[in-house]
Amino acid sequence: MLTVAEQLAEIRSRSLHRSLREIATPQGNEIELVGKRLLNFSSNDYLGLASEPALADAAREALDQYGVGAGASRLVCGTLTPHIQFEKTLAAFKRTEAALTFSSGHAAALGAVQSLVGKHDVIIIDKLAHACLIDASRLSQAVVRVFPHNHLGKLESHLEWARENHPESRVLIITESIFSMDGDHAPLVEIVALKQKYQAYLLVDEAHAVGILGAHGRGLAEKLGVASKIDLQMGTLGKALGVSGGYICASRVMIELLVNRARSFIFSTAVPPMLAAAATAAVNFVASPEGDERRKTLWHNIRHLEKGLRQINPNYPAAASAILPWIVGDEEDALLLARSLFEEGFHIPAIRYPTVAKGSARLRITVNARHTTAQIDALCKALGRLCPMPMEVAED
Ligand SMILES: *Cc1c(COP(=O)(O)O)cnc(C)c1O
C-alpha cells in the first residue's frame, strides 16, 4: 500500500500534480497572483457579471434584509422570499413551468439524476459529459451506457439496446449543450428527435451556454428551438451568471419530484438569500437590453480571438462558445506552455487528465465581454511567439 506522500509523488511524476493559487484581487481580467499582475483568460465569468454593480447591490440589499445564512435546508425553514423570487424569475426566463435551486451545479446534477432514475433504469451519457454528470450517473445505480462524444449512431444503438433489454425502465439521456473543455456543441436537434423516438428522458447541462447562446441568452436549446422538448434543463449560477449555485428548469411535476427525492437538495442548507437575490439580478440583467449588448460584445471578442488563433494555426476550428481550447497533447508540454505564458503575464492554466483524456492536455482559453481587443491581441501575439508551428487541433 502506498503512503499518501508516495501517492502524491506518483501524481507529480506524471505531470498531473495540481495546487491552489491564491489571487489577491477580485475576479476579473487583470488579477494578481503571487505578487504578479496577470491578464486572465481562464475564468467562466463570460459576461463579467461577477463584478457587476447590479448584482452586488441586490446581494447587499438582501444581506441587510435577510442576513447571511439561510439557516436550514429548504424543506425545513430555509425557503426564504429571495429563493422563491429567483426560481420564478429563472423559470420565466427559461420558459419552463418551474425551476429549483441547488447549492451548486454539481449538486443539481447529483440530485436530478438520482431523483429520476434508479437501480433498474438506464442512463445513456456522452463520453465528454462533465464529471458531476458522470458521478451522478454512478451514484444513481442505474445501468450506464456511454456513447462516444456527439456520436448519434452509438446513442441510437444504446437506445435500441435499452428498449430490448429494459423495456419497463426509464431511460435518461445526458449531455452538455456546450462542452466545458472543448467548447463545441451537442447536436441537440437530433438528440431530441432520438429521445422522442425512443420515449426517453433528456437532461441537458447548459452550464456554458446560458447567457451566451440563443436570441435571449437562454442557451443552445433556445438557439435551436428545442428547449420545450427537454425534460431537465440544468445549469449553474457560477458561470455567465456570475454568482454561485446550480439549478434545474423543468415541468412543475418534475420539480415536485426533485423536491421530494433529490438528496443533494433535501439534505443541504439552502443557498444564502443574498446569493439568490444576486442571481435574480443576474437573470434580469441577461434578459435586459444591456444583457443583449453584453452578449454582442462577448461574441465580438470570441470572433476576434478566433481570428487571432487562426493566424497562428490556419486550421483552428470555428468557435461555438467562449471556450477556445489550445490543444497541446502532452501533459508536460502543456505545463511548459502555461508556464511560459505566465512569464509573459497571462493566466491560462494547463488542463490535464483527469479533467480531459490522457494525451489531450490543453490550454483552456476563455474569453469574456470585458476583455479588450488589445488584451486579446496581446495574448495571440504571445501565443504565436511561443507556438510558431501549427498545432494539432481538436476534431470538430
Ligand atoms: C462547472 C460545471 C458544472 C458544475 O457547476 P458548479 O455550479 O460549478 O458546481 C456542471 N456542469 C458543467 C458542464 C460545468 O462546466
Short description:
The protein is of the alpha/beta class. It has helices at 4-13, 53-66, 74-78, 81-94, 105-116, 131-140, 152-165, 188-197, 220-224, 252-261, 263-266, 273-287, 289-312, 331-343, 373-386, and strands at 30-33, 36-40, 98-102, 122-126, 143-147, 171-176, 201-205, 232-236, 246-250, 323-329, 346-347, 350-351, 361-366.
Characterization of the model:
The protein has 15 helices and 13 strands. The protein is α/β, with parallel strands linked by helices. The protein is globular. It has helices at residues 4-13, 53-66, 74-78, 81-94, 105-116, 131-140, 152-165, 188-197, 220-224, 252-261, 263-266, 273-287, 289-312, 331-343, 373-386; strands spanning 30-33, 36-40, 98-102, 122-126, 143-147, 171-176, 201-205, 232-236, 246-250, 323-329, 346-347, 350-351, 361-366. Bound molecules: pyridoxal-5'-phosphate.
Question: What's the topology here?
Answer:
Blueprint: H1 4-13, E1 30-33, E2 36-40, H2 53-66, H3 74-78, H4 81-94, E3 98-102, H5 105-116, E4 122-126, H6 131-140, E5 143-147, H7 152-165, E6 171-176, H8 188-197, E7 201-205, H9 220-224, E8 232-236, E9 246-250, H10 252-261, H11 263-266, H12 273-287, H13 289-312, E10 323-329, H14 331-343, E11 346-347, E12 350-351, E13 361-366, H15 373-386
Parallel strand pairs: 2-11, 4-5, 4-6, 6-7, 7-8
Antiparallel strand pairs: 1-2, 3-9, 8-9, 10-13, 12-13
Helix pairs in contact: 2-12, 4-12, 5-6, 5-10, 12-13, 13-15
The site of pyridoxal-5'-phosphate has 13 residues, from helix 5.
